[in-house]
Amino acid sequence: MIFTADVLLDRYFETAFSAPDGIKRLRELILTLAMQGKLVPQDPSDQPARELLKEIEAEKQMLIKAGKIKKQKLLPKITADEIPYDLPENWEWVKIRNICHDWGQKKPDRNFTYIDVGIIDNKNGLISDSIQILEAKDAPSRARKIVKKGTVIYSTVRPYLLNIAIVEQDYKDEPIASTAFAILHPYSKIYNRFIYYILKSPYFIEFVEDQMKGVAYPAINDGNFFEGLFPLPPLAEQKRIVEKCDRLMAQCDKLEQLQREREQKRILIHTAAREKLLKASDQETFSQAWDFIKENFGDLYAVKENVTSLRQAILQLAVMGKLVPQDPGDQPANELLKEIEAEKQRLIKEGKIKKQKPLPDITADEIPYDLPNSWSWSRLEDIVDIITGISKGKKYQDQVMKEFPYLRVANVQRGYLDLKIMKYLPIPINDFSRYEVLPNDLLITEGGDWDKVGRTAIWNGEVSSCIHQNHVFKARRFLQKQNIFWLQLYLNSLPARTYFASASKQTTNLASINKTQLRSCPIPLPPFPEQNRIVAKVDALTALCDRLENQIDQKTSKQTQLLESVMAGV
After folding, report:
1. Which of 6, 390, 425, 532 has the least C-beta neighbours within 10 A?
2. pLDDT in tens, 40-82
3. pLDDT tier, 5 (very low <50, low <70, confident <90, very high otherwise)
4. What is the DSSP letter of 452?
5. Residues 6+ positions from 198 with CB-CB distance below 8 Å
6. 331 neighbors 526 (Cβ within 8 angstroms)
């Protein structure tokens, strides 16, 4: 079956446009059809490829006789077992070496134009304008392969990057290519752009992958490369195929541009609505922004970037007191703080916790935003007892020791624990109760790279008899009338992360906070009933985000399956 450009795009437009990598797959389909002789019709009046090969052989012998190219070792004939698929009647299977030649190698002896792998525009198959003119004395050891206008160059090092290009011009200073390239200069009856498309086709990519060797820098050697099989059509058909491929690839470029514009528009619209929501100074503006999001929900949250942005907005609204309405009947947070302080003093008096050096009152400069009237700013130490973990490498003498699993920075992520790898540490048995983590303890990371500072998760007793090292702080609430999930929520939010980033000690690659800086962290405290309402609302909206992402994944999977089915049916 032959596909015209219009039929191909019309038939697979929606599928390719919607599926992940759909346009990439459409490009692969175009090239597969082209290399199988199914993209354009055959013309019985075209000179068959077997006649073309005779002319190529005559041209080759003439070039050898003139001393322009070297005589190559005779290649073995292609066997039936090697042929990957059937070709149209007037096509022929040949080896790549049969349809092209190189120009030999030389060590540069004067100024030259150096073509290295790094200057290849692999999307458009061009040599970029940043090409270097070098003096002979500065020639890299790899600058050896001669190329001329019309030569196709193919990087045999990391070939999966498809660094393939056509030398499109005559350079003033002789062009010399890196030895990382295979050089394919077509004989006059071979269209170089047809070679270019063959090299980018799924069939040829699969052949190269089978031949590659090496791990860090996988490569295919020239010998194996030029043994590759090449589907050769008549010259006139080569040109028809190239013209069709050029048109279809240009259409694919337009589709990709449309995709990018659509996605960018969705993200920009959502960003604007999100900012309006976060910056709303009155209920009417807030409601308008939220109504817009609800009315356009299906379209806005068809992309994961917007779902991620929604998660961030939910968290930001929660800590600012804008996610749920305030209830005038709730006990204000300042009264809750008095109860917490009374309990704290009782525990100090009974010797259950240590008395800490008083911290200064929170200043206006430390407050990142205004709170609802029933909320209060406090420091973290006002509402939790912060305990430092055990130091590794500490020496003990004459004490009964026991190994316990302990929590490291790697175990504590934002809002969850990663306990796949637990390490063990021997400590004196008498010290265990001091470093033990109990259900509902907050675990807060001391440092690492800047984004790891202050990561917070709740311990739920996942591992029995577990302790924490000194790079993970433990924070324990004083009253049951404190929702520990609210504290986790805030400590992982942008305002807290901003505080930790500014307060932490930073080196080139690492940042860390000490106990005093953690104690001093400003915390917005809502009334206890509102803490519970906020956490419940965040849980519900987080579940919604999970469902949205799952729907996107399911839709993506269905689109991919449909595309696979379409491809298989061609």
Report:
1. 6
2. 999 999 999 999 999 999 999 999 999 999 888 888 889 989 9
3. very low
4. G
5. 35, 204, 230, 231
6. no
Give the C-alpha separation, 429 to 403, whole Å: 9
Q: How many residues does the chain have?
A: 570
Phi and psi at 20, nearest 5°, equal -60, 135
Query: 449 phi and psi, to 5 degrees?
Result: -70, 165
The terminus-to-terminus CA distance of the chain in angstroms comes to: 8
Which domains, and CATH codes, for the chain?
47-233 (3.90.220.20), 257-324+537-568 (no CATH), 333-526 (3.90.220.20)
Residues 8, 178: contact at Cβ < 8 Å? no
Cα 233 vs. chain centroid, distance in angstroms?
Answer: 40
Give the list of residues 6+ apart from residue 297 with CB closer than 8 angstroms, or none: none
**Closest by Cα among 223, 185, 4 to 102:** 185
Place of tokens 């080569």: 238
Buried b (16+ CB within 10 A) or exposed e, 23-46: bebbbbbbbbbbbbbebbebeeeb
Please answer whether residues 376 and 418 qualify as being in contact, where contact means their C-beta atoms are separated by less than 8 angstroms.
no
Q: Residue 408: pLDDT band by 50, 70, 90 thresholds?
A: very high
Nearest to 314 by CA among 9, 545, 23: 545
Tell me what pLDDT residue 173 has. 93
Cα–Cα dist 334/440, whole Å: 23
